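User: Hey, quick favor. My workstation is busy. Could you predict this chain's structure for me?
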Amino acid sequence: MNKYNLLAIFTLLVCITFSCSDDPVMEPPEEEILQDTTAYNLTYGALPSPDLPADNTLTEQGVQLGRMLFYEKLLSKDGSQSCASCHRQEHAFTDTTRFSLGVEGLPGKRQAMSVFNMAWNNNEFFWDGRAHLLRDQAILPIQDELEMDETLENVLGKLAEEKVYRDQFTRVYGDDDITVEKMALAMEQFMLSIVSYNSKYDKWKAGEAELTESEERGRVLYETEYNPFFPEFSGADCAHCHGGANFENDLYMNNGLDPEGSFNDIGREAVTNNPMDKARFKVPSLRNIELTAPYMHDGRFSTLEEVVDHYNEGIHPSPSLDQALLATSETGLFLTDQNKLDLINFMKTLTDESMISDERYSDPF
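Assistant: No problem, here it is.
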């Protein structure tokens, strides 16, 4: 091979080398994020149709954004806690501690309420009803110094730094402008999407399951009113406060936990300034009650047995005590040990195993 051929080969190799190195690296085109208003399919079995907010239509992307925020630890001061830290799916979206600990290790003042079937809640939020709408409730724990102890301004800044949130806000609202209002609306959407309707009791109502003899006796006791004149026919009168499809009554009530003068928490009165609301608290749903110990606004009862004993023989009269409970405070409910067992066995039929394992409500990260 002569020197001219060698020179030609060398020149070709140099050209190839420089040609390859000078070519710009082709980046894949960035995905264009577009608003997606596809409606969310809310399923609720035999429950009545919910009265959903007209100004916050549930969409697939809106519910997803709310779910992301519900599990997002950036919402807390030190990045250690999310809403789900105190509202855990496996416990029907509540906490198993009496008082949840916040980011500073300080305990809260009340037991965490369950977050399900909020779409059937018509009387404000929290134990004392201080939040008018669910969207209002959503952002208050973020700012509470005993809970997440963060400012909304800081939260917005942290979220704005994350592309995943800028993109998701765009999918929901059409732009990546992250605001407190948009956050609250999305979190409201997610919480409205959490529905419990598939317990053994629901299956029994639909003719798809059978109650045991004990569960059936408990059901009858649950639904039968108190009768002081014929104790043998008297029931537990539970449906008076925990009735309807959601096993609650949309009221605030004093259930006789403490006598007058011994209230450590004045409850609803702090919101309304009405003395007759003293020691009245929101009546919660008894759905999934088996999963939500401890019980009452202050978590004072660890077991359902303690709860039943309270209503059977532990009611303390006071001026704001519900009148139906005032009547039973004199005689008790006449429940035998077998009655108590049957009643608890019935309440356990309200456990919805499908809700606590539903991936739609789980941590998306």
